[in-house]
Amino acid sequence: MKSLFKFLTWLLFFAPLMVGAQQVRVLSEVLDFAGEIGSSQRKTIILQNESNQNRTYFLKNLRGSVGSSQKVKVCLNDQCFDPKKDLSKISIKLAPGEIFTDLYMEFEMGIAETRGSFDLFFVNVENIRENFVVEARYEVASGSTPDFTHKDIKLSGIYPNPSNRIAQLDYELVNPKAKAKISINSFIGNPIAEYELDPDRNSLVINVTDFQPGVYFYTLFVDNKNVVTKKLQVKK
After folding, report:
1. Helix, coil or strand: residue 146
2. Which of 173, 168, 142 is nearest to 157 (CA)?
3. 30 & 130 share domain
4. Sign of CA dihedral 98, 102, 103, 107
C-alpha cells in the first residue's frame, strides 16, 4: 500500500514534467568560438520542430560564464539582440516539422585572453517546462603577428614590450582621410588612455610611467570601428 502511495505521489509531481518533454531538437553541435583578441565570429544555430504543432519559444536566460570584455549577440535573420537585455525580443516561431536556420549567435572575443562556456535557455511560451538549450564554448588567445595591415593603415607592434618608461607604435595612414586612434584598456577592460593618430606623423609615443605594473591591451579603431587589439605589458 505504501509503495502504491509513493508511486501515485511520484506520478502526481513528475507526470507534468514528462508531458513537457522536449519537442525541439538542436541539430547544430556545441558552438565553439576560438580566435584572437579583437576578432568576432558568427555561428548558425539549427533547430528542428519534431512535433506536429506550431511552437513558439522565447529566450528565458543566458546561463554560464561570459568574460567582462566579451560580447554575445543572438540574431534572428538580420536583427541582432543582446541576450542580457533583450530577452523579450528574442522569440522563435516554428511550424510543424520545420528545420529553422535563421538563428545565429555572434561572439566578440574582447580584449583579454580567456576561456569559458555558457548556454542559451529557450522555453515554450505556452508551457515553460518544455525547453531546449543551445550550448556554447569560447577560447580567446592573443595574436601572434607582430605587425598589422589594414586597408587604411599599417601598424607595427608596440615596442619595447614589456616597457617601463616609453612605448612606441609606428604606423602609416594609407588613407589620410581615415580617422584612426589607439585606445588603451586595463586587463579587466577599464579605459586608461586614448590617442588620435596624426596623418602627418608616422609614430606614436606613449608614456607609461604613470601606469601600474601589469598587462594592458591597446586597440586600433579606424572610423570608430574596432580593428585589432594587442597586448602591452608594463613593468617597473
Report:
1. coil
2. 168
3. yes
4. positive
User: What's residue 3's pLDDT?
Assistant: 55
Q: Look at residue 43 and tell me whether its pLDDT is greater than 70.
A: yes
Question: pLDDT of 204-225, one tens digit each?
Answer: 999 999 999 999 999 999 999 9
Residues contacting 83, CB < 8 A, separation 6+: 59, 62, 72, 73, 74, 90, 120
Clarify whether residues 157 and 200 are in a common domain: yes
Q: Point out which residues pair with 117 in neighbouring strands.
A: 137
Residues 121 and 46 in one domain: yes
Q: Which residues contact 46 (CB under 8 A, 6 or more apart)?
A: 26, 27, 28, 99, 100, 101, 103
Specify whether 155 is located in the same domain as 216: yes
- Checking if the pLDDT of 172 tops 80, the result is yes
**Range(s) of the domain holding residue 230:** 148-234
Task: For residue 119, list its beta bridge partners.
Answer: 63, 135
Average pLDDT over residues 14-26: 60
Q: Is 192 helix (H, G, I), strand (E, B) or coil?
A: strand
**Can you give the pLDDT at residue 140?**
86
The amino acid at residue 104 is Y
Residue 4 lies in a domain: no
Sequence letter at residue 21: A
Residue 162: cis peptide before it, omega within 30 degrees of 0? yes
With cut-offs at 50, 70 and 90, classify the pLDDT of residue 160: confident
* Full-model pTM: 0.56
Backbone angles phi, psi at 17, to 5 degrees: -70, -35
Please check whether residue 232 is in contact with residue 216, taking contact to mean a CB–CB distance below 8 angstroms. Answer: yes
